[in-house]
Every structure is written in C-alpha cells, then in structure tokens.
Specification:
Pfam families: p450
GO molecular function: heme binding; iron ion binding; monooxygenase activity; oxidoreductase activity, acting on paired donors, with incorporation or reduction of molecular oxygen
Number of strands: 12
Oligomer: single chain
Organism: Schizophyllum commune (strain H4-8 / FGSC 9210) (Split gill fungus)
Strand order of the largest sheet: 1-2-3-8-5
Strand content: 5-15%
Number of helices: 16
Binding site for heme: 441
Cofactor: heme
Length: 506
Amino acid sequence: MSLDTRDVETVLATVGAIYVLRRVLDGRRCLQSVGHASGPRTLLSQMGALANILPVKPPIVFEEADCDVIAAVSFWPHAEAVLHIANAETIKTTAWARQRFPKRVAQYSFLDMFGPNILTSEFDQWKFFRKVAAPAFSEHNNRLVWAEATRTIVELIENVWKNGQVVHVDNFLEITLSGALHVIGGAGFGRNMSWGDDATAPKGHQLSYKECMVIVSTNIAVRLIYPDWFPSITRDLHRIRAAFSELETYIDEMIDERRTSKEERHDLLSRLLEETDNGDSVMSNREILSNIFIFLEAGHETIAHTLCFAFAFLALYPDKQEKVYEEIKAVASGSGDLPYADMHKYAYTLAVIYETLRLFPPVVTIPKVSTQDQVITSNRLSDGSKVEISCPAGTSVHFSVVGLHNNPIYWDCPEEFRPERFLGDFNKDAFIPFSAGARACLGRKFAETEGVAMMVSLILRYKFEVMDEPRFAGETFAQRKERVLKTAVGLTLTPARVPLTFRRRD
C-alpha cells in the first residue's frame, strides 16, 4: 500500500494540528496555574542562557498590566510561565527566602567555563565560596581600588591625551572599558597595567597579559555562542580561545608566585589565597581561578558600562555636571588632592552613579525558581491595592530590576534623571542594582569606590559635552538623548556609542 501526495499532506496537516493543539492546551494550563495573571504572551521561551543577551523593554509591560507582578507565558519549545516581579516588598521577602526561591543557576551555566564559582552556585557550595571570598573585599582593598582608579585617569590625561585643551572621544565606552580593566588588573590581580602597555608576550606565552585580559573580558558572549567542540574556523575565534587558555596559565603562575612571596598585598587574588591557605576553608586552584574570573567579568564590564552611561547623562545635563564639579572643588579645597579618606564626602557624585544604576542597571533581571506552591503579592500601579498571584512549584520567578527601578509607587517621575533623589531618604528595597538579600554583590563597595574615584579624577580636570557631529545637526534634545543613551545587546546593559568632547578646565 502506498500513499499519494494528498494522503501525505493530510497526515502532515493532522500531525501539525495535533502539535498546535497540544501547545495551546499546555499554554492554557500554564495560564491557569498562575491564575490568568496579566502579562505578555509570546511564542518563544524567555528562558535559557541566550535570554541573558537578548534586549528587553520591561517598564511598559508593567504599565499595560497595571500591576507590578506579571506573568509572561510562552508556548515554544514548551509552554511555561515566568513571573516578573517589580514589587519591592515581594522581592525583599523572596530574596531572603532562599530555600523557597533559590537562584536558577542553570541560566548562569555559561559562566562555568573554568568551573563552579560564587555566581553560578547555590546553597552549601555558594556558602563555601562566599565564606572564602568575602574577606578579600576589605577596606585595604578599597584603598587600593581608589589608588588604581585615580592613577589610571591621571595616566590617561598625561600620557594619552597629553594634557590637551580639547579632546574628542568617538566612544567614551572605550575609555571606561580600558580604565576599568586597569583597575581590576591592579586591585583584583595585583598586576598593574597602563595605557601604553605593548602587546609583547613573555616567554612561554602566545599573548601578553593585557591582551588576554582585554580579549577575555570582552568576548564572553562569543564563548557562549561557540562551545569548545566547535572548530576554530576563523582567526578571531582561535585568538579568543587562546586568550582564555592563556589567562588560565597567567593566573596559575600568579598563584604560585603569591604563595612563595612574603610581601603583604591587598589585591583580591592575594587576599583570596591568604584566606584559603590560612583559613578553615580550602579552595582548589581551579576554584580560585573560576572565582577570580567572575571577579574580572563583574568588576570590569559592569562598572565600565555604568561610568559610560553616567558621563553620557552628565554631558546631556550640564547643570548636574556642574554640581559634581562644585562638590569636587569643595572637597579638594583647591589643593587638587583626592585622598581615599574623603570618599564619603562625594555624596552627589555617588548619587549620580546611583541614579545611573537605577535607570541603566547592568543586570536587568535576576532569575529564581519556586520550590513549592505559594502565593506572591503584587500592587496595582493605578491605586496601590494588593493583588495575590499563584506561584506553583517549578515556576520561574524573575526580579525585574528595570521594572522595579521604574515603578512609580517608589520613584517620583521615574523616567527622569534626578540624582538628587538619592541625597535624602529613599526606599532602599526598591533599588537593587547589586542584587538583593543574602546574595547581594560582594563587590558593591569596590564598584562604588572605583566609580567615584574615576569620576572625580576626570571631572576635576575636564568639563565635557556631547560631541558635535555634522550628520546630527538640527536634532532636538530628545533625539540627542535617545541617540547617546542607546543600548546594545550584551551580557549586561551596554552603551552603544557615547561620543564626547572634553575641554580642559582653567
């Protein structure tokens, strides 16, 4: 018996119809499981490692739903519901209930390339990593961060800009990425880097230390897209893989060197080694490597992007820039000295960084998973009334950092750039750029110290504005703002291009 073309078409159509029907029924069950809560309905899943590098537009979704907890339901490759939370009280409660809402570590598996670490682990393993790593982020290390950050800006001005009266920078992100790399190199690894470092590889290496740091810190997404088994079909891919391998060798060499040295050092690697060698908890070299790699990635890209966005805002709002400068002048008192001891006096400068983090948090969502059937409380945005939403066991729960930071219940005119909102009392539970609960970022003070130091060092000497370009002549302020604050796809929220002109102060 043979089938003709019409029979084959009928069979395929029937199979297709059954598949679609099953997807629809599964989707309906998903909707029922979360009580038909409001939220977007999409074909493709929002889960998986690639979800971390896809662009998002959260605030408008919460406004349309009139609720600060929404259920996003997708239907392929299988039906699933994800609860997105922009409610401060619910996030706080959920963040501390780690047994009921553990971190969804599977979404961070691509950062396990050197092994488990403090970012990609949970429960006892995470506690172990945190216990060993926490002492490394000390006041001694903060002083080192400040020294490295101020040094790298002074070197930029003197050795790269040559103390120029007018300096045009096509994309300020290149400056902040390099500067942040120098800081993490010195304060993180205890190995100073400068703007003039050459690319000469030492004996036994294919690439220089700085080349490895630059390539690795900017190509995590490439490692995600091209797994180890994929052949190195291009020169760039071969070079990226070589850089990851070389960085591992460099760190192994530094570990051996620090363990035989008697010199007291306060960089993160040295302090991590001291804690694991002299404490009760012992990390293997591989675990040290993996955690140091996470410190590199977290301490480089995130602060670099934040600083770039902050300078973009200050270029767009010169009155805010002038307030920062007046604060720096008042603290420096005409001497031009910028000691770490004065950091606490830069309240407005830190407020600028906080407001930038509110509007452009490096990580836009923090994934958790519900381990049991429970209920999540939300607010109506229109009147503040309470709404309860079902959260069955196995449901993905995401803290929407962008949604929370734009929630009008906690922030007046949330779309506006207002650093002043951080000078007085504000709802600290509604501000989570460094995550929340027990898993809040260990490197918060590291990042704040680096950001303030680099800002005051540069703004003390230069004022700046958005670079004038003939092709953008006649654009409105709104158009200029949209252009300068445009984001690009990346592992964290990334500035696309921030062109600035710097003018030497008298």
